Amino acid sequence: MQFKDVVGQSKLKEKLIHGVRKNKISHAQLFIGEPGYGSLGLALAFAQYILCENKTEEDSCGHCPSCRKINDLQHPDLHFSFPTVQSISKTSNYFYEDWRGLLKETSYFSLFDWIKRIDVKERKPIISVDESEDIHRKLKLKSYEGGYKIMIIWMAEEMNTQCANKILKLLEEPPGKTLLILLSKEDVKLLDTITSRCQILRVNRISEQELKLHLEKGFDLNTEEADSIASYSEGNIIKAKDMLHIGEDEHSLKDHFIELMRSSYKKNVIDMMNWADAMAQAGKERQKVFLLYSSHMLRQCIIKNYTGNENIKVSEDELNFLDKFSPFVNGNNIRDFMKSIDEAYYQLERNANAKILFTLLCFQSMRMLHKA
């Protein structure tokens, strides 16, 4: 991975390159930003630039033995740590082949994408204390090629408390020529003592123009299509890809949303309870994605009601449904709708009973759809 392969983020690239050229590399760096903004690609390009044997002033060479090893994700001095489903494996080592396979496909993927890759039950993964001990062991080893040892910790906010405390000790007393790169989209979930010991780099959303050009070149879209998707995606390549590649998951989300709203509007309690039962059986991460999708659809209803079809970002099938449904979402109930979904998401993250949660959402939706 070279810097040129990362979409946008020119200022961050310059800052990282400048630090290497001036030999001012902080031993601990925290990249904060959504995965769709490119934080993992930046971290990998940064690691490759540091380890490159023939680096230029703008990028790694891409051809030296070190670069080739990193491109193949086989460099002995580059390590990765990431969340794992504890009932399958407590450390990352077991999942390395899955990790390499996904990262070779793209550096733009979400935690949910990773979960689907490693667990058919879609259970929530964490970074455990066992993983932190493995990180210590790897970084205490002597560098194979005499340079830096680099550890990239992806989704660092998923560290449990015991793991975070052990990582803190590593940040306070790092081995020589060691670089830890923590990637997080929610730094508020990290210990303050960890963030205070890291150089913080904020990975901002990709500019709409840069994302539009990437979509035109990478996905062979015309200007109008690329502009529409870039506008919807809010600088997030993962969201752009979701909109481009509508597959079974997205159709399922749409169907679940339609079923919820129809059964709630008809006050069909049996259908509502059946819907809640079905949603309770889905994995937690899929449930969270459904709630985010529902918020998006409700926002599109309001946009459609006030500005027509010109500014909404939905598929043709979704638009056909919204033509009939959007009048039932208005200023009288949209705040209550969004509050209910936000509360459901909040409780779901805190391991609330899914069946009770989605049953409550059904009845709340029924009440709000019939609100005058």
Summarize the structure.
The chain has 372 residues and is α/β, with parallel strands linked by helices. The chain contains 17 helices and five strands. Strand 3, helix 7 and strand 4 form a beta-alpha-beta unit.
Structural class: alpha/beta
CATH homologous superfamily designation of the largest domain? P-loop containing nucleotide triphosphate hydrolases
Rg from alpha-carbon coordinates: 23 Å
Number of folding domains? 3
Structural topology:
Blueprint lengths: L9 H12 L6 E5 L6 H13 L13 H7 L6 E4 L14 H10 L5 H8 L10 H12 L8 E5 L7 H12 L5 E7 L7 H4 L3 E4 L5 H12 L3 H11 L3 H8 L3 H18 L3 H13 L2 H24 L8 H10 L8 H16 L4 H16 L3
Parallel strand pairs: 1-4, 1-5, 2-3, 3-4
Helix pairs in contact: 1-2, 2-3, 6-7, 9-10, 10-11, 12-13, 12-14, 12-17, 13-17, 14-16, 16-17
Structural account:
The protein has three domains: 3-204, Rossmann fold, CATH 3.40.50.300; 206-245; 246-369, Zinc Finger, Delta Prime, domain 3 (Up-down Bundle). Strands 2-3-4-1-5 form a five-stranded parallel sheet, sandwiched between helices. The relative contact order is 0.10. It has 17 helices and five strands. 55% of the residues lie in helices and 7% in strands. Helix 10 (223-233) crosses helix 11, helix 12 (248-265) runs antiparallel to helix 13 and helix 12 (248-265) crosses helix 14 (284-307). It is α/β, with parallel strands linked by helices and 372 residues long.
Question: Main attributes?
Answer:
372 residues; alpha/beta; Rossmann fold; Zinc Finger, Delta Prime, domain 3; 3 domains; five-stranded parallel β-sheet; 5 strands; 7% strand; globular
